[in-house]
Amino acid sequence: MSLEDTAEKIRTMEIRGAALIARAAVEALCKYGEGLGELALPEFKEELERAAGVLLATRPTAVSLPNAVNIVMKDVRNADTIAEAREALRLSSIEFIRDSKEALSKIAEIGARHIPENAVLMTHCNSQAAIGCIIEAHRQGKIREVYATEVRPRNQGLLTIRALNDAGIKTNFIVDSAARFYMKKVDLFITGTDAVTVNGAVVNKIGTSQIALAAREARVPMMVAAETFKFAPKTIAGDLIKIEERDSSEVLAKKIAGDLDNVTIKNPAFDVTPADFVDLIITEKGAIPPEMAYIIIRDYLGWEIGDFR
Ligand code: RUB
């Protein structure tokens, strides 16, 4: 698959979910670099930066994408010879993909420890990291049942119920607006995330914050499964996470919406759940309260306050 094909698949959400986007981007970048013919070092670096730009322009919210590209490009940028740059690209790509897969199993193991016995869970959207925790807890005999939302407008809930069903987990499929109705039966609300800010706010699929609000009202804790590469370094300097606004036709077909001259159809793909509503974030390095997000950004992603002067 060419770089442009991967970018298009990310844009159209054929490839979706923050971790899968990051891995696909890294694979595409690596393959693109390997396909570049004889080039001098500056041209090689330039071509890769251009390719990285194409990938970064696909979807704005998942910080896993710029983080992954930066992790892979760091050694390439520092390389002194073309051979070094090519080797750096190959090795750092292999390493990122391996580490990100290992992170998922670690998160599943740690997350399952924080799921109570005989638990009723609710989840929103389709997160590999969150589903990993649920499946591991199920393997340990801890899950009674799961409520999974539909996730309008793109119906990612269908992917979630397929995964839970295949794992043999008793699952209830509900429309998004039924989340509060069922919250009283739930012990834990669990999601993944596209970005965690330095102050511990969690950016995830639209509707997450509404369900988090219902969970808080019902005194149901919220747990977020997040690889460390989902933490957003630039929020240290006050950068806000850009919320992707997708095409209105995802919400309402153009042939229906066409003559509604006074109606604007809004389609934000993500929302922000404040740290106050989040009880625990499960990373591959351990479970942390949201207030510790800066430690992850500093100690595991290598960014400091001074980097953004
Ligand atoms: C996906 C979404 C997921 C996170 C985490 O949104 O909000 O909860 O990306 O997923 P979209 P994972 O479908 O718009 O990409 O844990 O798999 O990285």
From TrEMBL:
Catalysed reactions, as listed in the record: alpha-D-ribose 1,5-bisphosphate = D-ribulose 1,5-bisphosphate
Task: One Pfam family, please name it.
Answer: IF-2B
What GO molecular-function term can you cite, just one? S-methyl-5-thioribose-1-phosphate isomerase activity
Query: From its record, what is one biological process in GO terms?
Result: L-methionine salvage from methylthioadenosine
**Could you tell me the keywords of this UniProt record?**
Carbohydrate metabolism, Initiation factor, Isomerase, Protein biosynthesis
Lineage top rank: taxon: Archaea
The family annotation for this protein states: Belongs to the eIF-2B alpha/beta/delta subunits family. R15P isomerase subfamily.
Active site as annotated: 125 (proton acceptor), 194 (proton donor)
- Provide the binding site for substrate: 16-19, 59, 204-205, 230
What's this protein's name?
A: Ribose 1,5-bisphosphate isomerase
- Name the InterPro entries for this protein: IF-2B-related, IF_2B-like_C, Initiation_fac_2B_a/b/d, M1Pi_N, NagB/RpiA_transferase-like, R15Pi
UniProt entry tagged with the keyword Nucleotidyltransferase: no
Q: What is its EC number?
A: 5.3.1.29
The species this protein belongs to is: Methanolacinia petrolearia (strain DSM 11571 / OCM 486 / SEBR 4847)
Q: What else is known?
A: Reaction proceeds via a cis-phosphoenolate intermediate.
Gene3D superfamilies referenced in this protein's UniProt entry, alphabetically: translation initiation factor eif-2b, domain 1, Translation initiation factor eif-2b, domain 2
Entry keyword Ligase: no
Role description: Catalyzes the isomerization of ribose 1,5-bisphosphate (R15P) to ribulose 1,5-bisphosphate (RuBP), the CO(2) acceptor and substrate for RubisCO. Functions in an archaeal AMP degradation pathway, together with AMP phosphorylase and RubisCO.
